[in-house]
Amino acid sequence: MASELGIVLRGVGGIYDVETSGGKVIRCRPRGRIKQSLAILAGDRVRYLPLSENEGVIEEVLPRTTVIYRPAVANVDQLIVVSACARPDPQLMLIDKLLVLAESRGLRPVVCLNKVDLVPESVPEELTAIYERAGYLVLRCSAKFGVGIDQLRRCLEGKTSSFAGPSGAGKSSLLNAVQPGLRLTTGKVSRKTGRGRQTTRQVALLPLECGGYVADTPGFSQLRLDDLDGVELDSYFPELRKHKVNCRFTSCLHRSEPDCGVKEALADGRIAPSRYENYLLLLDELEQQARTRY
Ligand SMILES: Nc1nc2c(ncn2[C@@H]2O[C@H](COP(=O)(O)OP(=O)(O)OP(=O)(O)O)[C@@H](O)[C@H]2O)c(=O)[nH]1
Ligand SMILES: [Mg+2]
Ligand SMILES: [Zn+2]
Asked: What is the dihedral of CA 47, 49, 52, 53, to 10 degrees?
């Protein structure tokens, strides 16, 4: 039998669900030599040899257009950074790190603010202002009340996207609202700690009825930006990238250098203070990492 092309939807214990070009899902094991050389991720395009109606062997993983490891997905076009407006409270640093991750890996970042029903309107408005000023598309949703779901669906339509964000933000709930047939399991947010309960345990790429795919992913709140160089960090903040042309020094890191275009833009409100502060914290973190690496 000739080999065929498919897309990995998920993997559990070394067995992968592969969607065939005909839209069927078959179970595949990788050939030994692939098993050792690289991890196969949800979203990977593979060449497999069909063994029976619903089984096959993965022979080759095709080159990836994009890849990120937290969450671990390959070939996605967009990263939908999900944050609740409350329960759990938004973590701006995590949002900014995820945006940097997307920018640095060539994924289009989108910000999705969920649970607008739990807070006064001013909360999503202020958060939206931060990220729209940076140039990002910001969606405001309530999975519970169906707010913003049409807009989210339009954003996902025809593309391959991945959700990312803390446990309890409502990633699975949003996807259930976009496509009720998915019936993804959702979990309660703990009253005591205000944190989610890690309900989604693994990455699963889901084919969408509106066309395209979306990965539901496990929540996390710690993210380390490895293999990034501090000097290139400003290029992953679109609003810093825009204003650094006005810096006197091309090597300006926008800390305390004179005639800094970024600090000028910050002073007159064209850059949100939280974004600038998180840039500085991340810059310190990356420099620290570089010093301890050898
Ligand atoms: N009030 C309100 N609650 C919501 C909304 N969206 C989700 N929830 C609730 O938030 C809790 C967590 O939702 P999940 O969809 O499981 O969150 P998740 O981001 O998938 O979490 P993990 O899988 O653990 O990463 C559940 O109790 C949901 O019912 C919303 O828009 N408003
Ligand atoms: Mg989930
Ligand atoms: Zn500068």
From this structure: 20
Out of 2.40.37.20, 3.20.20.70, 2.40.50.140, 3.40.50.10860, select the CATH number for domain 4-61: 2.40.50.140
Task: Classify residue 111 as exposed, middle or buried by CB count within 10 Å of its CB (0-12, 13-18, 19+).
Answer: buried
Ligand nearest to the CA of residue 266, numbered in listed order: 3
Secondary structure of residue 240 in the 3-state scheme: helix
CA of 165, nearest ligand number: 1
Spacing of C-alpha 219 from chain mean position: 11
Homologous superfamily of domain range 67-216: P-loop containing nucleotide triphosphate hydrolases (3.40.50.300)
User: Which pairing describes strands 137-140 and 108-114: parallel, antiparallel, or unpaired?
Assistant: parallel
What is the model's pTM? Answer: 0.96
Other CB atoms within a 10 A radius of the CB of residue 10 amount to 19
Q: What is the SS3 assignment for 252? A: coil
- CA pair distance 271, 35, nearest whole angstrom: 46
Looking at the chain, the whole-number percentage of residues with pLDDT higher than 70 is 99
> Any residues with Cβ below 6 Å from ligand 1, and which?
114-115, 117-118, 142-144, 167-173, 186-189, 196-200, 218-219
Mean pLDDT (the chain, rounded):
96
**Ligand 2 centroid, distance to 281 Cα (angstroms):** 29
> Looking at the domain 230-292, which fold is it?
Ribonucleotide Reductase Protein R1; domain 1 (1.10.40)
